[in-house]
Amino acid sequence: MSTKPRQKKELAVPRPSSRHGYVVLISPQNEVLLLHRVKTSTSYASAHVFPGGNISPLHDGEYAFDKEDPRRHYDAPNYRNAAIRELFEESGILLAKDKQDSLSGLFHVNDAEREQGRRDIHSNKIGFSEWLRKQHATAEPDIDGLIPFTHWITPTNLPKRFTTQMYLYFLPIPTKEHSAQNTATTTAQGLPKDGRQEVQVPTSDGGIEINEARFLPASTWLQKARAGEIILYPPQYLLLSIVSQFLDQTAPHQGPNSTVEELIEEEEKERHSRRNNLLQFILTDNPPWTDKFVCPKTMKLLDDKRSVLALDEPGPELHGSGKKGVFDRVILVRFDKDGPHDVDVCWRKDVLGDLKSAL
Fold first, then answer.
1. CA 186 and chain centroid, separation
2. Is the pLDDT of residue 257 over 80?
3. 1 in a domain, yes or no?
4. Domain Nudix hydrolase, which positions (predicted)?
5. What is the tally of structural domains in the chain?
6. How far apart are CA 185 and CA 64, in angstroms?
7. Residue at 333 is within a domain
8. Could you list the residue range(s) of the whole structural domain that residue 31 is in?
9. pLDDT tens across 287-335, in order?
10. Is position 124 within any domain?
11. pLDDT of residue 183
12. Is 8 a domain residue?
């Protein structure tokens, strides 16, 4: 009796998306913005996620490459436009600048125009770029301010897969001259005078997709996840862990005779220093975190039912591209019906050592 060879199951093709790619947005106080998604969401229901969303040809431009071309996964303007647009729709924070005056700071829009714009763009009544031009003829998304911070492709064992570009963005740190009382005076471009920056406060989208938008220190978000208060998926947990190492350091000691002005100035310097240390780390690793491509793969199931996810491979779509992932770390996670739990980031050598000892 002859038997036919079993055919290999065809992999689901990941589509270019920014919904599973996010903006790791850093506040002037070096806190991180997370959004609490509604429980009826078709993706990441009830989880806390970085802001981001699907690439839309209407708003963000067409794809430059077909689905078989590895370059479709690389950083590109449509990924960046989608990330900034979805950040605006979901949280109300607008990352846009005057393209004729790059030193003028982020573009300011009054609250009424901002909220109406969020609704109209979300419902596709108007394109994002067109809406920006209506605010001012030379306004454009600040895509140059986005710093690539890993690229993720959904594991091959899932039927619905995404290719996802992560970004890091630092909101400006106001100078000591900045105060909330004097920001009402603006330039013709809608920007605060004297180089001062608007302090943008995130808000939900009224419960359409987001219940709450909030800045907290990265370490606080991680503590909430470990306590079971919030749900964090592995990419968010890993990137928050990296950010926390640098931005959540202990504040510098202040002398007893320091003036208020000196304290403020020292704190500004410290926040800038922490940002520079984070940037140096992600830019100098091998490969740099700006160019790491990760397709998580299960290595082992532990006794506590957590999976050990290897992060070193970029996935079959990038085979032969020379792209590499995160080799020195692994993620431990237990997946239940409502999402991931007991997530942790460990050194690969420690986990592999434990596994070898057990064997």
1. 30
2. no
3. no
4. 16-238
5. 1
6. 42
7. yes
8. 15-252+259-358
9. 999 999 999 999 999 999 999 999 999 999 999 999 999 999 999 999 9
10. yes
11. 41
12. no
Give the tokens for residue 324: 């590499």
End-to-end CA gap in the chain? 40
CA angle centred on 331, ends 326 and 335, rounded to 5°: 135
Alpha carbons 349 and 243: distance in angstroms, whole number: 22
| Closest to 317 (Cα-Cα) out of 18, 16, 70 | 70
User: Tell me, what CATH number does 20's domain have?
Assistant: 3.90.79.10
Of 61, 63, 106, give the one whose Cα is nearest residue 88: 106
Structure tokens, 203: 């808000």
d(CA 194, CA 215): 27
